[in-house]
Amino acid sequence: MLLCVTASHKTASFELLERLSRNPEIVAPSLMDAGAQGAVVLATCNRFEAYVDTAELDHGTGLDHDAVVDAVAQATGIPASDLDGSYRVVDDRHVAEHLFAVASGLESVVSGEGEIAGQVRRALSDAREQGTTSSELERLFQRASQAQRKVKNVTALHRAGRSLVRLSLELADSRIADWSAERVLLVGTGAYAAVTLATLRERGAVDISVYSPSGRAELFAKKHGLRAVSDYAAVAQHSTLLITCTTATDPVLGPDQLSRLSNAAGAGCPMGASTAPGAPHSQLVIDLGMPRNVDPEVAHLEGVTLLDLETIRLHAPLEELQATDAARDVVREAAESFHVDGSRQSVAPAVVAFRTHIFGLLETEIDRARRRGDEDGLVEQAMRHLAGVLLHTPTARAHELAAEGRGHEFTAALETLYGLAGEAPDASLAASDSAIA
């Protein structure tokens, strides 16, 4: 059984993700010590995930998600209570689709970013070096890389993030005569913020400040040569262009906040602008957040124009912006194929045992026929043909049942009728099944 415990920018704070990812190399061995059959840990700046191969719980030796979380907590030194509410659990049937989506960039801050694919491959490589992987995890992660390559080759997902920013600024062109004269406030310091900053500078913007709800503005500003904002309200009041691109789950800008900012106009402008008391302050707000960073009611405020993702898609739909749906379809198909193939492998020992049994009986009867004078081999030929005909339907049915998750029914029937029980599949049995399928 496969299990994944995942904490990401969607569920956990960056501070907690940093703590989880500080020493990822010690987590997989800890999971193995706790009883896992295999473990692979994926740790990035925006994600920490433990993929575990474990026995079924009803076998008495399997790990449930609480045991996995406890092992992670013990390995990282983070109290389990600190993890509460910061992770989610993906169960066996959905693990493949989740990992394939992660590897393809569908779960990244910037949709379609390519760096995650390499990080997924390195996670498997690290597990191999530590000796913590398993045959099922090997198959899972190898299929993840295949799915990622297909998403990249048949969809425009890898261009979606940059296209979203580029398109939003192209739509802003109709309101902006001189980008170098704009007073820009960038809210957010993640991957989207970096892409947005580069695109703003390409268009000629120079007066750019950055604010971070998570307190990362100083570090981002130092890295990119910007001004970090400490007085968000004052700077936002006098900015002509505000672009939000954070992973915050609650809006970072709303109508009440902007109303208070407008009332504070007489306090003076820290950026050197002048605003007449009571005069509407013309601002363009671009919300690139997912979920929304800006309350939609902002659009109803006087002097404020809101451009959000829905507006961007409505006014200028691009192939790249429709790529997510296509990529999801590829991922779902790949996950279904993974499960079907895995199900076929699950009945491989029983199929091999059945065919070995039948062919054993066949050879005995052929030997008997030869002793009785089957000189022309016609009896042997007929018997081999009959055996093939008789084996075809049960073998095909075994694979059909496996694809439906009912492979155990075939194994039970085989044991009941013939007294045969297939052992756990290994490389030789898998190869044999492939050869006779």
What do these coordinates show?
The chain is of the alpha/beta class and 437 residues long. It folds into 3 domains: 2-154, Beta Polymerase, domain 2; 160-318, NAD(P)-binding Rossmann-like Domain (Rossmann fold, 3-Layer(aba) Sandwich); 330-436, no CATH class. Helices cover 54% and strands 11% of the residues. The protein contains 17 helices and 10 strands. The strands form 2 sheets. The chain has a 6-stranded parallel β-sheet with strand order 7-6-5-8-9-10, with helices on both faces. It has a 4-stranded antiparallel β-sheet with strand order 2-3-1-4, with helices on both faces. Strand 5, helix 9 and strand 6 form a beta-alpha-beta unit. Helix 6 (115-130) runs antiparallel to helix 7 (135-154) and helix 11 (232-238) crosses helix 12. The longest helix is centred in the C-terminal third of the chain and has 49 residues, at 323-371. It is elongated and about 105 Å long. It starts with a strand and ends with a helix. The model is unreliable at 261-280 and 424-437 (pLDDT under 50).
